[in-house]
Design a protein that fits this description.
- InterPro entries: YbaK/aa-tRNA-synt-asso_dom_sf, YbaK/aa-tRNA-synth-assoc-dom.
- It comes from Streptomyces gilvosporeus.
- Residues 48-171 form the YbaK/aminoacyl-tRNA synthetase-associated domain.
- By secondary structure, this protein is of the alpha+beta class.
- The protein has one domain (4-185): Alpha-Beta Complex (YbaK protein), CATH 3.90.960.10.
- The chain has helices at 23-30, 53-60, 97-105, 115-122, 144-147, 167-171; strands spanning 11-13, 42-44, 69-78, 81-90, 93-95, 109-112, 140-143, 152-155, 162-165, 176-179, 183-185.
- The strands form three sheets. Strands 6-3-4-7-10 form a five-stranded mixed β-sheet.
- The two termini are 24 Å apart.
Length: 186
Amino acid sequence: MATPMDAFDDVRPAAECLDLLVEPVAAAIRGWGGSVPVRELRYVDTDPAIADTELLVAHYGSWLVEQSANCVVVAGKRGGEVTLAACLVLSHTRVDVNGTVRRQLGARKASFAPMDTAVGGSGMEYGGITPIGLPVGWPVLVDAAVADTPYVLIGSGGRRGKLIVPGKALAELPGVTVLEGLGVVA
C-alpha cells in the first residue's frame, strides 16, 4: 500500500527542517517526547498555492485523500465561556461539529472558529493549522481513523509544506482525545 511519502520527491526528517516551520510547530518537534521517534516525523515542501486539500490531491494523486487529514479549529460555547479545540479528521470526511464535538466539549453550541481566532490562537497560518504545536490546554480531538492510519499527511503550521506523521504519534499528542465518529462522510 502506498504511503503519503510515495507522492513526493523530497521527503526529509522534520527535525532537519525546523527553519521551514512556524515557531510553535518547530518548538514541539524540538521537544518531541512521544513513543514514536521524532525521526518518523517527515517534512515535504509544497507550493502554498495548492495547500488546500482539494488542490493538493488533484496535483499529487487522488489516492492521497484517504491518507491526508485536515485540522480545523472549533469554538464550543456554554454560557459566556468559549473553548477552542482542534479537530483532526481524514480529508474525505468532515468534522461532526454539532454532534460529536459539541458533546465532547460539553458545549451548548459549537461552530468553526473564525479565521482570525484560529490563526491568532494557534500561532499558525490559516490553511496550514496542525495539531502539533497547539497551545497547552487546547483539547485536540482526533478521529480514530486518523490514529489508525500508518502515515498521515497533515499541515505544517504554514501554507507552505506538509508533515507526514504516523497516526499513532498524533494520538499521543498532548491534550488528545481519540474519538470514533469525529469525522463523518461528507
